[in-house]
Design brief:
This protein has four helices and five strands. A hairpin with a 2-residue loop joins strand 2 and strand 3. The longest helix is centred in the last third of the chain and has 38 residues.
């Protein structure tokens, strides 16, 4: 079944490793065969990989876009995911779902699930920050007494 993509003016996407940019009016594309496609909103650059979950996403993105190096990037992904889950065991359910998709060779689906892992990471960081702020406030109150 063909895939229809709406392609707005100025948008970029990657199709089988080639960066495509719409420099004209809005248009639609119909992809008739299987291809590795990522829309601009799904792509992160290596420079944007500032957190463990974003590095996991980037490794899967590379495995998806560069099939000739897929095994290398899957190996990197597995190592990064193991490290993440060791540090944040609360992400194990999402990590398990991602691994199921990888084992089924559904890298795009694994990428979508990794976006949930990034959301999980944001929540973990948020809770940590709140805990640090609370501890700081308690310490300040004790020092004031």
């Amino acid at each position: 079944m063909p895939l229809k993509l709406d392609f707005k003016a100025g948008d970029k996407m990657i199709i089988n490793g080639a960066v495509i940019e719409n420099i004209g009016n809005n248009s639609s594309l119909l992809i008739h065969n299987e291809a590795a496609i990522l829309r601009e909103k799904e792509i992160i650059s290596e420079a944007e990989t500032a957190t463990p979950a974003s590095r996991i996403y980037f490794s899967l993105q590379c495995a998806y876009m560069f099939p000739d190096k897929k095994e290398h990037y899957i190996s990197v992904f597995r190592e990064l995911l193991n490290d993440y889950l060791e540090a944040a065991p609360s992400g194990k359910e999402i990590g398990s779902q991602i691994l199921v998709q990888i084992d089924k060779k559904r890298i795009y689906n694994a990428l979508k699930l990794t976006q949930k892992l990034i959301g999980h990471e944001i929540e973990v960081f948020k809770r940590m920050n709140e805990d640090i702020e609370s501890e700081y406030e308690l310490q300040s109150v004790k020092e004031a007494d």
